[in-house]
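Feature request disguised as a bug: please show the residue count (125) next to Cobalamin biosynthesis protein CbiX in the output. Example input:
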Amino acid sequence: MKKNTALILFAHGARDPRWAAPFQRLQKMTQENLPDTRVELAFLEFMTPNLTDLVAQLVADGCDKVIVSPIFLGQGGHVLRDLPVMVDALRLNYPDLELRQLEAAGEDPAVLQAIRDYCIRSLSI
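Example output, currently without the count:
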């Protein structure tokens, strides 16, 4: 039986709604490449949905596997302290849910190479 899987792109959030535009584009791009996986955005603060509310909705919709991908450049306080507390609470609330937290996107070598390439290209603009 295939799992009903969701990928949550987890970002900080901001008071200015324009801040979310690149994350919304990333969500759309990711969803286009993963047609059998639900791809959603959640935010730590200032924006909705927050992680707790989104996971509750996903579980209500029948998801049994959720992967949380922090779209942060580094493993700072939010990713190292705040997010694990939230994920642990979600595990307690939804013991049948397979829930996995990835490291910050910026820790991935391919992400760093893409940023490096962007910076190098900027020299020829």
